[in-house]
Amino acid sequence: MRALEEALLGPLGPQRAKEALALALSLGLPGTPKAYEVWLAYVLDINPQLREVIDAELKVGVQFTLERVNELHKQFFANDALDVHVINAGEQISRELASILEVLASAATSNEKFADRISNTAKALEKTTDLAKIRSLVGELGAASAELAAENRSLAQKLSATSIEVSSLRQSLKDARTDALQDALTGVANRKMFDTRLHEAFDAAVKTITPLTLMMVDIDHFKRFNDTSGHQTGDQIIRFVASVLQKTASADHIVARYGGEEFAIVMPKTGLQEAHRIAEAARVAISSKRLYRRSTNEELGLVTASFGIAQIRRTDSVSSLIERADEALYTSKRNGRNRVTIETPLQPAA
Length: 350
Prior knowledge:
CATH superfamily of the largest domain: Reverse transcriptase/Diguanylate cyclase domain
Number of domains: 3
Strand content: 5-15%
CATH topology of the largest domain: Alpha-Beta Plaits
Oligomer: single chain
Helix content: 55-70%
Number of helices: 11
Largest sheet: 5 strands, mixed
Order of helices and strands: HHHHHHHEHHEEHEHE
Strand order of the largest sheet: 2-3-1-4-5
Structural class: alpha+beta
Shape: elongated
């Protein structure tokens, strides 16, 4: 958001702002704040990844719907939304903590006063033998105890209410983080989370000298489904493939929507043999399922996917690992689709 503001304050800011709005309208999109922000970032060229994705989709004639633009906004501007949640929740938690300190301070004052009353009453009891006076002092003790008990009940109620509020705020932060890192359509990790987790897994694999495998997956002939059956059917297919990948991957693998109809799976501590087994299981599960359009119950035809697998090497960077997995994927495409390609041949099992 800061980069957008800085760019708009430049000499070409007003002109670029008009271009962004004109571009959105020319694509048949309403000038919603999210749509405007996406196209403004595109026109100003302040997010190379966003521009790359949009250029690729414009090149192949993808129709930009408001839903697609909202997905792009969530993918590339999620941190801004998360920052707002963090700031708001942080301010609320600060207020709740201040309330807790105020309650505790009040309780300390009450306890101090109670201690003084007990001490004074005890001294008075030591000095008197008058029965009426003793009864009066005992009554004073009872009254002081009752007041303290009431104060403590009030304290407990206030602390309980504050505890509930803090728990609610913590859940709100957790939900905001989930939304910021989750693909809206499929529920799997989004591109932002993929980038983060791949870098983490890469660093861990280098440090511990353990395998790390990356699998790239692309739905075959997806544009044909979109063109003939519409975007809702395309979304149905994307969700189906995502669910298959999620079910076949291991618990410690990260399934992510890489972009459009492409997915990626980060596979820590997993070798090529195991990755190949998982890919084959997913490929068979996808191609053997008959899908029907929900609105008409019409059969959609055979849905298949192509897979590419690469494993970390000693000389690798994150970029080179992605590049090799991508190349393996496109080898599958070139060789007829609906197949798994590994960057290097598998060794025969012992």
